[in-house]
């Protein structure tokens, strides 16, 4: 996720991953048009921890040469797979015929997939939406096309392009494509609790689940789901149980922020660290009872110390976390 899936966040989330569990790690979205011309050592969005594994970066693009060059760079960088973005709904993507625009032309979307498949031996996946409009016949052409072109798995965020991230995601679309495809389907959209995770798997039959925004507020969701599935606790939390009450989760959010702040300032310069910190709170705050105040307070932070004391002060009284924000949407 742009502005979120960076190294400091991945390191903070990893802390909550059950010891014997494995996940696929994304990067921030990378433009295949820019990547080949960038100085990789200076590219903060490509920062990766030496121990990081199972990285599947996501690229945006629609032309063979840039896609081929980007995949080569990413393979050397350590990618174990490549995801192609066919869901980005911003105006620029619509204008330049990449991101979700490709869903309007299933034949060309399959060609783009095929360009990536031919570029290397890494598995290629595609992440997309319910469509530009909700039209099941176009969706079938689209998914069958990318499957035939060699995609090894797909991820569906079932909102239309116009919905952006508003309204509710329509999980029936995940079930619909799961029935049509033989490659694995990852379901995505509005999974905020371990119960949502279970419900999505039961209702849609999806093979895996991708969690986005809720992980910024509740990174220990991986631990909570792990408990449910019988995994061991994360290494740093042996013998403990995942936070579960609203108070415990509020306390855990404080601890998580205090863990992530030094990582932001270690990996990025002060300007970028502050930008990332403020943006992080914009996405994660709705789960916290008085979280909106964090946005105003973060705007007044100009150093690592400021961020630290702001969080300490804000959480000096008990802060409770909501189970979901779905009722508020
Ligand atoms: C700030 C932000 C940036 C995002 N950037 C991307 C992106 O670069 N690529 C992508 O495929 N999805 C992106 N998404 C969408 C999420 O991956 C996900 O599909 C969507 O938020 C729905 O899932 P969720 O309800 O679990 O968050 C972004 C979402 C947010 C909030």
Label this structure with key terms.
329 residues, alpha/beta, TIM Barrel, 7-stranded parallel β-sheet, 7 strands, binds flavin mononucleotide
Would you give an account of this structure?
The chain is an alpha/beta fold. The chain has two domains: 7-229, TIM Barrel (Alpha-Beta Barrel); 246-314. It contains 13 helices and seven strands. It has helices at 7-14, 64-77, 91-96, 106-119, 136-148, 172-180, 194-204, 214-217, 221-229, 246-267, 270-284, 292-299, 304-314; strands spanning 30-31, 58-60, 82-86, 124-131, 153-160, 185-188, 208-210. It is globular. Bound molecules: flavin mononucleotide (FMN). Residues 1-4, 29, 58, 85, 87-88, 127, 157, 165, 188-191, 211-214, 283 line the site of flavin mononucleotide.
* Helix/strand/pairing category: alpha/beta
CATH architecture tag of the largest domain: Alpha-Beta Barrel
Strand order in space, largest sheet: 1-2-3-4-5-6-7
What is the straight-line distance between the termini? Answer: 20 Å
Ligand set = flavin mononucleotide
CATH superfamily of the largest domain: Aldolase class I
Radius of gyration: 20 Å
By DSSP, the count of extended strands is 7
> From N to C, what is the helix and strand string?
HEEHEHHEHEHEHEHHHHHH
Sheet with most strands: 7 strands, parallel
- Strand percentage lies at 5-15%
User: Fraction of residues in helices?
Assistant: 40-55%
**Fold-level CATH name of the largest domain:** TIM Barrel
In the CATH scheme, the class of the largest domain would be: Alpha Beta
Mean pLDDT: 95
Number of individual domains: 2
Uncertain spans: none
Anisotropy-based shape: globular
Total of helices:
13
């Amino acid at each position: 996720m742009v502005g979120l899936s960076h190294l400091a966040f991945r390191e903070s989330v990893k802390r909550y991953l059950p010891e014997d569990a494995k996940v696929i790690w994304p990067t921030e979205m990378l433009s295949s048009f820019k990547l080949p011309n960038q100085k990789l050592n200076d590219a903060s969005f490509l920062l990766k921890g030496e121990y990081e594994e199972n990285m599947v970066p996501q690229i945006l693009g629609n032309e063979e040469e840039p896609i081929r060059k980007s995949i080569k760079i990413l393979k050397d960088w350590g990618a174990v797979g490549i995801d192609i973005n066919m869901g980005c709904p911003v105006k620029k993507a619509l204008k330049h015929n990449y991101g979700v625009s490709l869903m309007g032309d299933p034949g060309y979307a399959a060609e783009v997939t095929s360009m990536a498949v031919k570029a290397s031996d890494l598995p290629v996946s595609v992440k997309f939406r319910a469509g530009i409009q909700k039209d099941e016949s176009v969706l079938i052409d689209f998914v069958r096309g990318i499957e035939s072109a060699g995609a090894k798995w797909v991820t569906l965020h079932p909102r239309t392009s116009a919905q952006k991230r508003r309204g509710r995601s329509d999980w029936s679309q995940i079930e619909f494509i799961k029935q049509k495809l033989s490659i694995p389907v990852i379901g995505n959209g509005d999974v905020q609790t371990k119960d949502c995770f279970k419900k999505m798997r039961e209702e849609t039959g999806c093979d895996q689940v991708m969690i986005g925004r809720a992980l910024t507020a509740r990174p220990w969701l991986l631990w909570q789901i792990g408990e449910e599935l019988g995994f061991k606790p994360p290494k740093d939390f042996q013998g403990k149980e995942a936070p579960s009450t609203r108070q415990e989760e509020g306390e855990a959010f404080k601890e998580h922020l205090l863990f992530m702040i030094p990582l932001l300032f270690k990996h990025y310069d002060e300007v970028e660290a502050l930008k990332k910190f403020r943006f992080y709170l914009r996405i994660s705050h709705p789960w916290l009872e008085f979280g909106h105040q964090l946005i105003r307070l973060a705007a007044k932070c100009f150093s690592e110390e400021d961020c630290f004391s702001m969080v300490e002060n804000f959480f000096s009284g008990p802060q409770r976390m909501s189970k979901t924000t779905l009722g508020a949407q």
